[in-house]
Structures are given as structure tokens and as C-alpha cells.
Amino acid sequence: MVDFEKLKYKKKFPVYFGFLFIITFILVIINNKISSNKYEDSNQFPDNQTITLNLSDQPQIPWSYINVTSYVVETFSAAVHGSLISFNGTFKESTDKNALFEKFFCDGNICYANLKKGIFFHNKREVTAYDVEFSFVKQLLSFDNDNFARTILDDIVGIDNLKKEKIKHISIDTLSYPSGLISGLKVKDKYNIIFNLKRENSHFFQKISTGYLPIVPIEEFDESYLKWKKYPIGFGKYKVVKIDLNKHIYVIEKVNEKEDIPKFIRFIFSDNDTGDIKGYIGLNKANLNFDSHIIFPDIYSNAGFLFNYKTELGSNANFRKAISLALDRFKIAKSSPYGEFVADDQMLPASGWQKNYRAEIPIQKRNLEKAKKLMETIPESLWKDKVFHVHTFWNTKKELNHESYIIEIKNQLQEIGVHVYFHNTDMNYTKFKKNDKNVLWWSGFDTSTTDPNSNFAYFKKGSFFDNIYPDDPIFENLYFEATKNLSKSPIFSRNLSQYFTENNIMVTVFQMRISFLYRKNRISSFGNQYSPIKILVWEIKLNK
User: Fold this and answer.
1) pLDDT digits (tens, 9 = 90+) for 408-454
2) For residue 390, what are the contacts with CB-CB under 8 A and spacing of at least 6?
């Protein structure tokens, strides 16, 4: 006779242990994913001496300065190129060995900078004031508006009327430098430089100390001054030792062997969940490759809609107002899993030092009824039953139309009859083209400088960003007054902020804190990080 009870037990026994084996196997795989850190070049750059920082889903060249995310540029430049002034953002004389200027101050419209002696590029040549001038003008020499240099240097006399015939070449220590392009920039000698400004700006040195204008050696460029002969070279704590443009892997090595900082930093760009640290927009909680996260407390960037003012809809004040009123910013911000989004409708955030310069008005609340009435004033042929394609400059390759905050925005706009479809970032199409027919763009502006007016400059006539400026004399005058009186009173920047917000020149939806996933078995500390824009990689500590 068959003992059915024993048979039932025998059947359960292998099933139970088979299931246990599968669970154990899965856990081992997960654990290996978290603890394994092997790369093809690990023999050259040992894992116990190398931090791998996955900066973005989007493949980027971190020194291109044009189609690249701001914190990528600033992080790479801080490590390799160094900085004009201290990274901690102080206004005092700098004793920071990674900073080039020893003394810097402004007297009215004239600013003076004194370079430290004995600061050397990685090619062993001393850095001089002539290198500062060259570094500032090299992007302007092509007379192409596709760079940030003109906007960053906007305070200097002569930046508005650059003329090729004014360029002369001077010979310094066997090197020939182009000079004289910007009339308000004068090199006095190898260690002193003078800037004549159009107006006072107490934040001038903070503004020009940026990774978008790194100080570089002229002899390391080709004749166009745009392409490096080999590797990017600066005077920072790290030098470049590997470039793989196909796989987007870049490795830097510390210059001073005695300095107690990570020996190697490997920058990678991958939408895979690889690396010891990975930057994210809208963190994903369910991530097996990373077991911890960090959100920097300071605001990194705002986010919202830019308008193509060369189109009938983009230049229509009622359309822009309707878009703004249709949005429930607080509901959209709540869609961020770790609270890294903060509801807002202004260019400047409501926290930190910048709050003193923003308009003293409440954040706009949703008014669906008014938004619908505004849409009724606009010819239906321009928007009724149309789908607006929204292109983006956004640091993620995750399908935007599946992201919770984007879904929320789309649903809210749909309630006023505006149907939008978001396109993930195409690095070959990162802003409106001159004859663009698209009306909306999704992007944001970072807080990289301590000049509260700097991002408003991108909305002046002739901006680097084609078509997003309203060609508005009132806005231009408010900008002029704000920059002219920056050191006297914040009221002028507040007036600029209020006009910008109330006229929806840009519709800001939220502010964003930068966030990182990381692996606790690899990273013990992020150290002192002074800014959410530039990650000071030498402050990060590996677990021993």
C-alpha cells in the first residue's frame, strides 16, 4: 500500500529546498552586483584606489562646455583645471592651493586680480595672467555665439563689440598669445590682470570662476584653439590619464602622490546602474546595485518650460500665463520619491543666499478656470487638437513620458486642452534652432554662481539660447538696473525677478536638489561639499 502522507512530504521536501536554493542564488547575485567593482582597466587603475563616478545617463564629453550638463562640466573642471578662487565660495584672499588668484578685489567699475607665483600646469609650465586672458577669449575667437563665454563675461567693457581686427599677438616666453580682443581686459604683467566693467558687480570674480571658462595652456591646443592636442590640461589636483570617447570613460589621477586623496577617479556615463556613485534626476527607490543615497541640501537647478518667442504661441502672453496657471506645482513636486523637488515658480530658489534677491510674492497656485479662459482668447487653430512636441535638455535617459512628474505635468496641461509629448535629450539638438517651429522646451538653470542676476542674462536679446528671449525693453532695462545696483541693494534684482515671474518669460515648475545613489561598501564619506554644482571628488573617501 502506498503511504500518501509520506509521498506528500517527499514531494514538498525537494520543492521547499529548490525554492530556498533559488532565493539564495538570487541574493548572491544581488550581493555580487553591490560588492563587485571590476572594470576592464582595473589592472591599470586598481579598485582599492579608484572611485568610479557615473555622472549621467547621457553620454557626455566633460570638457566640451556646450552640450554638457553643468555639474558635469564643473565637477571635471574643479578636479582637472582648478579654479580662479577658492571652491568654498569665500570673498576673501585665497590661500587654497587649488585656486589661482591670491588677491582679488573691485574698486567701483575696476577689478584687480593678482596671481600666485609657482602654480604650474600639468605640463610643468607656470600659469600666468596671459593664460587667463587666452582662456577667456579662446571661445570667442571663432565668433560663434554657440558658447557661454559671452554671457559669463558680459560685465566686461568691450564684450558687446568684439572685432577681429583688434586682435594682436604678443610673444611671452616663446609662446604667442592672441590679445586685445576684449578692450576691458588688460594684462599688466605675468601675475596681474585688470578688468574694466560696464557696471559694478561685487560678484564678478565668483561669476568668472567657472568650469565653463577653465584656465588652460595655449600650447596644448590645435590652431583653432578649440581642440586639445591630446588630453585636457589644467593646474588642478588631478591630471587626465585616460580618455575613451567611444565608451565615454575618462580617468584622472592625483598629481601630488603625498596628498591623502583618492588616487584615481573614473568618470563614466551610462544608463546602466554601474559605478560606486551615480547621479540621478528623480531617484528610483527600487535599485539593487546601490544600497544608499544622498541628496545635497542646497538647490542645484530649477526646472520648467522655455518658450520659443519666434512662434505666435510662444510670444503670446496669455498662452504662457495659461500654462503657468494650469500647473499644480506642489502636486508635481510631491512626485519625487525622496523629496528632491521643491515647488516653485521663480528663477531663484526660496532658500540660501538667493532668497534675498527673489520677488517677495507667493508661489502661484493652480487656477484651472482662469487658465481655460485664457486659452479661449487664443485662436484655436494654433492649439486645438494639436500635440506639442517638447524637446528637453535633461540629465536622464529614462523615458520621460513614463516618469511620474512628467505624467503629472502632461495630465494637468491636458485639462486646458494643451497636449504635450516629451522627447528625451538629443545631444545634437539641445536648444531651439533659429527657424524652429516648436513652441515649448523643458530644461532648467543652475545655481553655479553667486551672481543672482546671471541666469536672467540668458533671456536678453541675442542670448546663447536662440529664441527664448522676449526682446522686451522693460525686461532689458530691469536687468541693467539689477546688475548695475547689485552691490547697493537687492531690491533691483527683486524687481527683475518679479517681472520675469509675472510675465512668465520662463514658467518655472520646481527647484531641484542634486541626488546620488551610492554603494556603502565602497564609499565611506562625501566629505566637505560646498556646492551642489561641482562635486569635489578629492573630498570623497573610499572604504579601506
Assistant:
1) 999 999 999 999 999 999 988 989 998 999 999 999 998 877 789 98
2) 305, 420, 421, 422, 423, 438, 440, 441, 442
Can you tell me whether residue 227 is helix, strand or coil? coil
Provide the CB-side half-sphere exposure for 200 (13 A, CA): 11
Question: What value, to the nearest 5°, has the Cα angle with vertex 166 and ends 198 and 85?
Answer: 50
Crossing angle for the helix pair 317-325 and 368-376, nearest 10 degrees?
160
Q: How many CB atoms lie within 10 A of CB 484?
A: 15
497 closest CA partner among 348, 332, 331, 335: 348
Q: What is the pLDDT of residue 456?
A: 95
Q: Cell numbers of 140, please? A: 570667442
Contact 304, 481 (CB under 8 A): no
Q: What is the DSSP string of 322-376?
A: HHHHT--HHHHHTTSTTS-EEE--SSS-SSSGGGGGS-SSPPPPP-HHHHHHHHH
HEC secondary structure over 138-198: CCCCCCCCCCCHHHHCCCECCCCCCCHHHCEEEEECCEEEEECCCCCEEEEECCEEEEEEC
- Whole-number Å distance between alpha carbons of 516 and 523: 12
Rounded to an integer, what is the distance from CA 259 to the centroid of its chain?
28
Q: Is the Cα torsion angle 75, 80, 85, 86 positive or negative in sign? A: positive
Alpha helices by DSSP H, listed for 415-507, are 473-484, 491-502
Greatest CA span in the chain, whole angstroms? 108
Residue with cell 558687446: 160
DSSP 8-state symbol, 127: P
- How much is the pLDDT for 2? 40
